[in-house]
Structure prediction request, 175 residues.
Amino acid sequence: MGEIYWKLFHDVMHGERYFWHYRIRAMRIKSFIDAFVAIASCAGVATLAAWHSFYIVSLGIIAIAQFIGAIYHLLPYGNQINALKYYCPEIRKLLDDMEESWFSFSDDEKEKIIGLINRYRREFSNLETIYLGDTYFPESDRINKKASIECERYISDRLRLDSEAFNEPTECDKK
Prediction:
């Protein structure tokens, strides 16, 4: 039962780390777009005022900035950031609770772990439904790799568990 519990812990932690890094990337992209629109608008107006002979370049810069400003609300980054702003702390609380629950059991009480596994699976699913809902998050291999490294480091350093055990299929996965 312990390997199933820690496999669930690993999966939840990987998800938390993945979305943490995804949120950081989305915030950087959103900040870049905001800065670009602001700079392009100011530069376009300044260029138009200073160089009357390059008015086509100035109008092009202003048009691009206005176009991005007009479609800005259609870009997914704001929705993703808002969803993850509340999701990541809740998942962190769930992970802390999972870790604390495991270490509160004595060796002969480990059979009660089945109830905990089901409870934490439900909680994880509920958090995804509540906070992420239908928000689209495209898969990123780079973020996935970074999340895997941090997850394995946490499990081996803090919990002193072998992360190789999480990559092997459990009895539930085989069925």
Summary: Confidence is low (pLDDT under 50) at residues 169-175. The first helix runs from residue 2 to 50. The CA atoms of residues 97 and 103 lie 10 Å apart.
